[in-house]
Every structure is written in C-alpha cells, then in structure tokens.
Amino acid sequence: MEKEKAGLTRRDFVKGVSLAAVGGASMGGASMGGASMGGAVGLPGVEEEIQEPQSTSRVVLIRDEGVVSEGGGIDADGIQQMLDQALMSLLGLESPSDCWKSLIKPDDVVGIKTNIWRFLPTPPEVENAIRRGVKLAGVPEENIGMGDQDVLRKEIFQRTTALINSRPMRTHSWSGVGSLIKNYIMFDTPSDYHDDACADLAKLWELPSVKGKTRMNVLVMLTPQYHNVGPHHFDPIYTWPYKGLIVSTDPVAADAVGLRIIQAKRREAFGEDRPLQPRAHHIQLAETVHKLGVADMDRIDLVRLGWTGEELI
Amino acid sequence: MLFPETIGDWVRQDTSITYDRETIFDYINGAGEVYRSYAFSHVLVDRYEKSGGQAVTVEVFDMGNPEDAFGVFSYAREQEEEGIGAGYERKGSVLCFWQDRFFVCIAAEQRDADPEAVLGEVARGISETLPAPGPRPALMTALPSEGLVPFSDRFFHTHQSLNYHYYLVRENVLNLTPETDVVLARYQPGSTYLLVIRYEKGEDASAALSSFRGAILPGFEDMETVATEEGMYTSSSHQGRFVVVVLDAGSEDAANSLRMAALESLEPLLQ
User: Is A279 in the B-facing interface, judged by CB distances under 8 Å?
Assistant: First the structure.
C-alpha cells in the first residue's frame, strides 16, 4: 500500500488515474503537488502573509486520558490546561497570557465560531477556555461574541477583527467530514457550497467577513464521530473517547491531521480500509486549488503532547 | 399522511414540523442534499413520548415515488431486515424503513436496553398508516445474484451519488442527471463494482459510453475490456437505453463475465 498523504487513502487520491488504461494518458482530477499558499491566519502586524512554496505548518495534538470521564463528562480544568499547553508549544511562548496576547490585540473585536450541532457540539468547556484566553489578551467582554448558525444575524460578527474557530470533527454524508474549513459555512448561504461533495469549501475563507481574521483553530477530538448512521442521524456507538484537541493556525493542516485519525479509527473499527463516503476531498483541495493551508502530511510538523495511548497517527 | 395520535403507550406530542426541498437544510444541514438527489418533496417530523420519560423522534420522508424511497434507504444501509415496511435497518438508536413512496426513521432520544423493541413498536405503528409496500425498482433486477455482496446494492440518479458510493472522477463523464436511473453493487471475489445506468434514450446511452471511455480509457475507446493500472480490468458496453460498466475486476474474464451477465439480466427490461 502506497503511503497515505493528507489522511486520504490511495484509492481516494488516485482513483481517476488508476482507472486510466495502462499506457493511456492521465486525466483530470485533483492531485497533490507543492504550491505556494496564502496563509489563513491574520496575525497582528502580519498583513496577508504569503508562505513560500512547499511551506510547512505546525499542528499540536494534545491529549489527556482523564479529560473525558466514563460517563462522558468533560473536565473543564483539564481542557483549559490542554489548550494552554497546546498554544505554548505551538507558539513557542512561556505562558498562556503571552500566547493570547500574541494572537489578539486588546482592541480587537473577536468572534468565536463554534458549532452547535445538537448531537456533537463544540463543548462549553472548550468555548469557555477560548473565551478566557481572549480575555487574557485584554479584550473586554462586550467585544467578544460567540455564534454558529446565527453569525450573519449577530451584530458583533459584522464588526469582528479577529476570529477563533472551533468545532468537533465528525463524519458527514455530503462533505466526508465536518471540518474546521467547513465550520465557516454559516458565513454564507450553505447550499452554495454543496457541489461535488463540498469540494470548494475553502472559498469560504475568502469572504470579507472571514478573510485574514482567523487567529487560531481548535479541532475538538474529545469524542469524534467516525461513521454515520444513515444520511443524517447520529448514535454515540460511532464515537470514541479520543480525548484530544488539535490546535493550529492552519485550519487545513489541523483538518488533515484530524482526518487521518478518523480514517485510522475506521480501519481499526471495521477491520479493513473503508474509505470515507464521500471522500473528504475539500481538505486536499483547500491546499491544491485554494492555497488555504497545508494538507500534505509530509509538510505538517506534528507536535504530540500528553497521553499517547491509541493515538492512531 | 397523518401521524397516529397514539401508538400503544406512545402519545404524539403534536409538534409536527414539515420541511420541504428548500427548508430541509434548516433541519439536517448539508446532508439534506442526499434527499434532494432523489425526488424528495418533504419530510414530516414529530415526537412521541410515553410514561417514564421515553421519547422518540419520527421522520416520514415523502420521496416522491417508491423507487426513490428504496433508493434513499439503500444509500447507506449495511444490513437489512424484513418485518417492517418493505425492509428496515436498525443502527444503534435509529431504525429506518421504506414503504411505498415513504422513507421513515425513528430515533430514540435515550439509550434503551432493548432499542429494537422500542423502535420497532413505533415503526410498526407508523407503517400501518402508510400504503402497502411495493416492489424494488425494476432496474435492480439487472444485478446478477452470483457473487453479489449482500446489501451493497444501491439505487440513485446523480453523479454526486455515484462518487459517494464509488469515486470515479470529479467530472460527470457518464452524463448522469436526476432523470437517469443508476444501480451499483459490489461483487466478489475481490472488490468488483457493477454499474448499470438507464438513460432516457438509446442515443443518450451511446453518448454517455463514448464520454466515459474517452475520459477514463483514453486511446482505448473502441475496446470493451481494458486493463488498468494495479492489474484491474474495466469493461463497458451499452444496450438500448442502458450502459453497463464493470470496474476493478480482477481479470479480463471476470470483467467480461459480469458485464455479460448483467446484459442478460437486462433483457426483460429491453422489451
């Protein structure tokens, strides 16, 4: 089996090519390749940073065996510590306060884009940890908003200067996975992005209400969902206590790591390589077509912190 | 269709909400596209409770016709049982069945010690209010039974659905539309796929086959069976309004045999 890239199986990746007759010409379809890319991150003082071709992205995967209880309860203090440690490692700074101050200015208006899907929402413990961090940067409460399906209706999201993006990863019947990239779909008309298994979700990140504003992405992997029940239902039998957070300034890289874990879990659970349906190609295309970030695992600097049991990556 | 007021000890909560092709996204976000890829017109959602705090959500999707009700039932099914509607599947706390033009799902709001019994009772109560079950789409008979992997057979219409079940290429090289009928199934040995498509006209089928071969098998457009990379074989042909494609066969003989068997199965539909 050829080495997987970006968490997509070989079948996902080269299906079109593999179908080409032996000796025949190659055909259309996405392919991995190095490309220059515009950073998704709008750090203070860094205007539209353009990364060099073949750039890398750092991603921190942090896990804590005790952060989710047997009954599914989430330890708020544990989450806070995980987020603090992840940020310090990611940014190379000494304290959570320094981290948040490097990301957010006191006069920023900050929108926290969460996810309220009723079966597997962004946990309040994660939302609160992010909110606390934004306050550490000196942002007053009245300049902090949180929203999901209501972001176009909430006044504060009309004037945000910075965004923090957080959601759980789960399998999805139309896009392959619900990802950080996809989490911004409520900033526009969602159905406009459904073509070809949501191939071009990364376009969302070019919207004026979003572009250049995202300071941090937190992919929640506490109890991710690795398989669907029918087209749209949910059952916790297809979640598992992975007890992790994936943190990065690059949403594509964070999603690529999360996707790889989901696919590894599917192999473990099903005892065979069962590709996602549909394949989550919007993550790969976010790099190859839209230059939003890095999906190639070979160019992701993955830092692992905390519990390493059943890591799956 | 009206929900029964009671089903055994279950009492309807009179919270019915209807979502149509446009508002379906308000209920189930992007996954609503799965239903919209069929002739789905609307879904009626309600809730039943019984003493002790148990509650279930009931969804009745009007899929427009029995073929599409089976189609959406087949979309993600991994098992199938008889005894409710024309067939049902339970996964965890969700039970779905299809009957006539309806696709029905019952979802328990709490984990239950015996979900099959709880969900089955409500499902049977809903089933009694629906028209009698009908047969599966006639095109399903084009699938030869020998080697067919159980419950791998799907019925759908569009290119996006094909790529969900078997990723071919991004482009719609088979010219699939909401009007084309498609069946896909997996066969053993190996993991061979058989695709049978019914077009509106014979010339549509011919054009689709040319398009498929030109895109997938460039330089080999005149050949029915072609070796591809990885030692696999692809075989394709058309007959009347139908196109038959075998993908990922382990040998040339296997590819040809499955294609010929499908063409033979199609004969009654050619009349």
Answer: yes
pLDDT at A53 over 90: no
- Provide the H-helix boundaries in A166-227: 195-198
| Domain residue spans of chain B | 6-127, 138-270
Most confident of A120-124, B75-79, B90-94: A120-124
- The CA distances from residue A148 to A92, A116, A184, in Å, are 30, 7, 8
Using a CB cutoff of 8 Å and minimum separation of 24, what contacts does B149-154 make? B149/B185, B149/B186, B149/B187, B149/B188, B151/B77, B151/B78, B151/B79, B151/B80, B152/B185, B152/B186, B153/B74, B153/B183, B153/B184, B153/B185, B154/B71, B154/B74, B154/B75, B154/B182, B154/B183, B154/B184, B154/B185
Residues in chain A within 8 Å Cβ distance of B168 = 15-16, 19
CB contact under 8 A, B167 and A27: no
Q: What value does the mean pLDDT take over residues A246-270?
A: 97
Which of A24, A29, A231 is nearest residue B76 as measured by Cβ atoms?
Answer: A231
In chain A, which residues have their Cβ closer than 8 Å to the Cβ of B234? 19, 21
**Claim: this prediction has a pTM higher than 0.80:** yes
Q: What is the mean pLDDT of residues A268-277?
A: 91
Question: In this structure, are residues B206 and B238 in contact, taking their beta carbons and an 8 Å threshold?
Answer: yes
- For residue B96, list chain A residues with Cβ-Cβ distance below 8 A: 230, 233
- Domain residue extents for chain A: 59-306
| A38 pLDDT above the threshold of 90 | no
Give the CATH architecture of domain B138-270.
Answer: 3-Layer(aba) Sandwich (3.40)
B204-229 mean pLDDT: 94
pLDDT 10s digits, A174-193: 999 999 999 999 999 998 99
Q: What whole-number distance in Å separates Cα of residue A276 and Cα of residue A169?
A: 13
Q: Do B215 and A235 touch (CB under 8 A)?
A: no
Are A8 and A20 a contacting pair, CB within 8 Å?
no
ipTM here? 0.84
Which chain A residues are closer than 8 Å to B215 by Cβ? Answer: 27-28
C-alpha to C-alpha distance for A80 and A99, rounded to whole angstroms: 14
Using DSSP's 3-state secondary structure scheme, residue A187 falls into: helix
